[in-house]
Amino acid sequence: MTTIGVAIPVPDPYGTLLREKRADFGDPMAETVPSHVTLIPPTEVAADELDIVCKALDRASAALPPFPMRLRGTGTFRPVSPVVFVAVSQGISYTEMLAECVRTALDSPAPQFPFHPHVTVAHNLDDSSLDRAYDDLRDFECQFTVSEFALYHHEDGSGWVPQRTFSLGQ
User: Beta strands of the chain (E only): which ranges?
Assistant: First the structure.
């Protein structure tokens, strides 16, 4: 079995900046998790089904055109989950539609919690570290065009490694 994830990568320089901030807040996941907006959470698939997965993702990528995304300010899932994130403030509807297209293409189950597009910047840290992340990035803002999403494989030691991108609107 291979553990995959499907996500919108946050392009540089913003992706690197958010990853560096995550490390600065003390989150060890910064080393193994690129900055991203999750479309499909970690999912196990048989290695011999990866070609089928890629074909399904090709179909899903054709469903929507590229779209603008703005990340702005911070939010948190506390007290339900010890997470601080940078919020998606523009592109929410497109991201929701894209996640639904990907879930449908892969025949994935509905998410456990309502889908809320975001970029995690601190996870499973003590309250003071989460507060610092929330305060430090409260004025963060960037904008970019989402023209693709990526398939990631989880590899022991390396973490989440991008395998292939899928261009939107093709």
Answer: 2-9, 36-45, 67-76, 83-90, 118-123, 141-146, 148-155, 159-167
Q: Count of CB atoms within 10 A of residue 118's CB?
A: 22
Domain count, the chain: 1
C-alpha dihedral, 78 to 121 to 36 to 155, nearest 10°: -100
| 85: containing domain | 2-167
Q: Quick check: pTM over 0.90? A: yes
Asked if residue 114 has pLDDT above 90, the reply is no
User: Can you give the CATH number for the domain in which 140 is found?
Assistant: 3.90.1140.10
Residues 6+ apart with CB under 8 A from 129: 25, 26, 27, 122
